[in-house]
Amino acid sequence: MTSNSLFCAECVANLSTGKFALWLTLAIAVSLFSLWKSYHLLKRARLVEDMPTSKIRSASQGYTELIGVATRQGHPQLAPLSSTLCLWWRYTIEKYQRTGRSSRWSTVEKRASSRPFYLQDTTGICRVDPAGGDISTRHRQVWYGNTRRPIGIPKPAQLNNGFFSLNRAISFGSRYRYTEYLIMDGDPLYTLGHFTTDSTGQRTFSADQLAGDILRNWKTDFPALLTKFDHNSDGELDLGEWQLVREAALGKAREQQAAAGAPPDHLLSQPEHSGLPFIVSSAGQAHLSRGFRRGALAYAAGFLLAGMLATWLMTSRLIG
Fold first, then answer.
1. What is the DSSP string of 45-101?
2. Least confident piece of the model among 138-152, 236-250, 298-312
């Protein structure tokens, strides 16, 4: 055993009981957390690799894997920081802070879009509700500035893949870093979540919009509304009677949808009370699986190192 090893062992032996307990608890906690995280990521990798892919038209209700392309239905969104047209966005704003001799990027703002987007395969279209999803994207934009919110639209020369030198950014006087993750129209899309279908063809959100149009049309002939819904004959419509009007309009809207043969409304969302992950990725299935496996390997190494540290601490204490 070398003199340095003896010296370190002696330092551990001389630690107070409180400090020794703190270091040992920390090493064990890191080891156990790394083991759990490695198992968790490996389980996700196996799930992504082994789950059979379903087609939207024939998918079973419940936990389902769908693969297709992101498609625009209606108006696209504008990413808040870069004003890029997209279907979904998430951004992070960080500030460079220096404390004494240390410096770091600290997150000051973080937001994500809650608006649904759509996945299309060869058999149909499915609405994807991003709430609660583990979403990874192939498009990432990173740029720097001097204000908390970026001013104007970043130029292509300002954008990069995140490998911009920190020292270079600070030398330019940039105190803020902006990172934007985007899903664009036409991106390949891998999804794994809870699949449901409104097989009646009466899509609630569309029926509500149609009911609003019907109501506006009915209000243009208010005497006819009074004749039909003014049940107490007081010459006006009270709250209860207006509720009847709204229900009648909604019923009329659904009748029109059924007559028009509206397609089923498919929805993919976060599983409820199952513990199963909700995964959305525009980076591809193979890339997603490799990422999970690499993460599992890294945490497995952390488990071994932290475990070795805990073992060494206990051994040194006993020897000392």
1. HHHHHHSPEE-TTTPPSEEEEEEEEEE--SPPEE-TTT--EESEEEEEEEEEEEETT
2. 236-250
* Rg of the chain (C-alpha set): 29
Please write the tens of the pLDDT for every residue from 150-178.
887 776 656 665 444 444 454 455 789 99
Q: Tell whether the torsion through CA atoms of 243, 246, 250 and 256 is positive or negative.
A: positive
The closest alpha carbon to 195, from 281, 272, 88, 289, belongs to: 272
- Of 122, 2, 109, the closest CA to residue 55 belongs to 122
Tell me the sheet residues that pair with 63.
194
Q: pTM (2 decimals)?
A: 0.67
CB-CB neighbours of 90 under 10 Å: 20
Cβ 302 vs Cβ 36: under 8 Å = no
Q: How many residues does the chain have?
A: 320
Tens of pLDDT, residue by residue over 24-61, are: 889 899 999 999 999 988 988 888 888 899 999 888 88
How far is residue 68's CA from residue 282's CA, in Å, rounded to a whole number? 10
Token match 């079973």: residue? 60
Q: For residues 270 and 131, what is the distance between their CA atoms, to the nearest angstrom?
A: 7
C-alpha span between 280 and 288 (Å, rounded): 10
